[in-house]
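One-letter codes give the sequence; the fold follows as tokens. Both lines appear below.
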Amino acid sequence: MPGVSETLNGIRRARQVHVQRLGRLAHAIYATASRRVSPPLRATDRQRFAGDAALYGNAELRFDLGTFKFLTLPTDFGVFGLADAGRVYVDGSTPGGWHTAGGGGVWFSPVSRTSTLSFAVAHSTEQTSVYLGIGFMF
């Protein structure tokens, strides 16, 4: 399911929700090497939480703060907050419950939003992680 985003008065809300189930069709996509499904939660190790099904959501609230010139290029910039939550299921039960992460960062878009650079910090009960990326998560 693709992410959804909306803009209102310079504030962009973006979110995505996914359900994954390991089964006949998912086996070829998600589980060729290992029969595990893991939600993409920031500030957690990629395979930290795994089971045969997962439910997770990611949300970002982005604020456009303005435009400045960088090496003669018009560059939009702003800040964003993020929140992630997910859980995995093993044989229909969810022994670990919900796992969450939150944080925020800054973004810069020289020329257009298709060339966005972002810097973020996310924190969970597992760890704090720093991310430098091209584009947004969704």
Notes: The helical segments are 24-30. The CA atoms of residues 43 and 127 lie 6 Å apart. Confidence is low (pLDDT under 50) at residues 23-35. The chain is about 5% helix and 55% strand.
